[in-house]
Design a protein that fits this description.
With about 450 residues, the protein is α/β, with parallel strands linked by helices. Helix content is about 50%, strand content about 15%. The strands form 3 sheets. The chain has a 6-stranded mixed sheet with strand order 7-8-6-4-9-10. The chain has a two-stranded antiparallel sheet with strand order 1-2. It has a two-stranded antiparallel ribbon with strand order 3-5. The longest helix has about 30 residues.
């Protein structure tokens, strides 16, 4: 229990390591020795002062609680109180910056892992670890205001803060254990590691769980809220991905060519562009084929399938063009660095101009009624975004329906696909595609009736 009461003494190390991805391993390793010596000396000084005190109560505060002396400030000379307050405030700012930066990194990684809604991410420097997430910053600010308003005193926050730190440590131990297992480390070493750290963390955890009603519940409430968002988004993505079916593109090439040259059907666009998630050029989503040929036949001079891949190289800007059917079906694969703005509409226009200039594609021959077709530009182009919605033809369980309803709410707050890909709204056509998870059973009691006159 004594060890459990010292939980807050370890928070500095936890905050230090939360900035590991931004400062680098070597900087943390070198800086840790200085931090360790400073913390060690400070705690020894506070302990020496405490051993010489008969009482730490100095009065009663406005909440009717005993006002305790703060050893951190009591060990300072009177003339050093003001500089000490300034230094401790600056230290708090630095520590909070480490937590803020760590939160930004976690949100960015969660978005890539499809366990968090898409949000806007900014990169102020050329280093991948340096990023800024406006929505996360707003959530942190609101959270700070609510926590300060609720607790009002830092002393009251000890239970909530301590429980947060120990749960974070336990999660770190769990992840490190999985890492050791995946790297086939000796079972004896893993068992020894778990024995040592589990004993220490269990002591911390038991002590802080006793303070659950005194503020520890706030930490768990915030954590459960975040977990709920992640769980809903992850499960809904699994449900949607499970029902995304792919077909061989070559099976539909004759039909696409025929549709492109069928002038009895009104032309939808000169260039019809679909964003595809298929990694291989010979595959295409069934929903895209359904959108082009079945729902409402969309005739275009050329059908384009665009795939975007974000890579670790910050400024990489490459693209690959594969002409699947000359002047009819073309695929473009982008490889863009994480710092490159995804202005897909602008990039596509430049690629189109280059292909026409190099005579790799020819759209002028299709304009039969224009005398000087060479003066025609690239023509119009339209990006079709397929937005899947839950069909009423589903028979979902209460759990599945709650997951999908929650996903729809989160999706309405997340960054839209056209903004995420930098598409000009004037060139975007959003089409609703029904998502059928569990088709409704046949209604066997429905029967037709006739009028007597009939």
């Amino acid at each position: 229990m004594v060890v459990g009461g010292c939980i807050l003494c370890t928070t500095g190390a936890e905050a230090l390591y939360s900035d590991l991805g931004h400062c680098g391993r070597q900087n943390i390793q070198i800086g840790w020795f200085f931090v360790l010596i400073m913390l060690f000396l400070n705690y020894l000084g506070q302990s020496a002062w405490l051993l010489n005190q008969t009482s730490l109560v100095v009065g009663v505060d406005k909440f009717g609680e005993a006002a305790l002396s703060n050893p951190f400030y009591e060990i300072m000379p009177k003339w050093f109180i003001l500089p000490g307050v300034i230094i401790s405030t600056l230290a708090s700012v630095i520590a909070s910056q480490a937590v803020i930066s760590g939160s930004f990194t976690l949100i960015a990684e969660a978005v890539k892992l499809n366990v968090w809604p898409k949000v806007k991410i900014k990169y102020p420097t050329e280093m991948k670890g340096q990023l800024y997430v406006p929505s996360a910053n707003l959530l942190l600010w609101i959270g700070c205001l609510v926590v300060v308003w609720y607790f009002q005193k830092s002393v009251r926050m000890e239970a909530a803060y301590g429980l947060t730190i120990i749960v974070s440590m336990m999660m770190t131990t769990t992840l490190l254990t999985f890492y050791l297992i995946n790297n086939k480390v000796s079972v004896a070493y893993i068992a020894l590691f778990l024995l040592v750290y589990t004993c220490i963390e269990t002591a911390f955890f038991i002590d802080n769980m006793e303070k659950f009603v005194h503020g520890g519940w706030v930490s768990l409430t915030i954590a459960l809220s975040l977990i709920t968002v992640m769980w809903i988004w992850f499960r809904a993505k699994l449900i949607k991905t499970k029902h995304i079916l792919y077909d061989d593109l070559k099976d539909f090439l004759p039909a696409l060519k025929e549709l492109s040259h069928d002038h009895s059907i009104p032309k939808f666009a000169t260039h019809l562009v679909y964003l595809t998630g298929a990694n291989r050029p010979n595959k295409i989503e069934q929903k895209i084929i359904y959108s082009i040929m079945e729902r409402q036949p969309k005739r275009a001079e050329i059908y384009w399938f665009v795939h975007v891949d974000v890579v670790d190289d910050p400024y990489k800007m490459e693209y690959k063009v594969e002409i699947i059917a000359p002047n009819d079906v073309i695929r473009v694969d982008f490889k863009l660095g994480f710092r490159v703005p995804q202005k897909i509409s602008y990039y596509f226009k430049k690629i189109l101009e280059e292909l026409i200039r190099n005579e790799e594609i020819d759209i002028h021959g299709r304009y039969f009624n224009v005398r000087d077709s060479k003066k025609i530009g690239i023509g119009d182009y339209t990006f079709v975004l397929l937005k899947r919605h839950l069909s009423y033809d589903n028979t979902l369980s209460i759990y599945e329906k709650s997951i999908m309803d929650g996903y729809n709410i989160l999706n309405s707050w997340s960054l839209s696909a056209d903004k995420a890909y930098g598409l000009d709204s004037s060139n975007v056509y959003i089409e609703q595609v029904p998502l059928v998870i569990h088709p409704a059973k046949h209604i066997i009691n429905l029967k037709r009736v006739y009028d007597k006159e009939t």
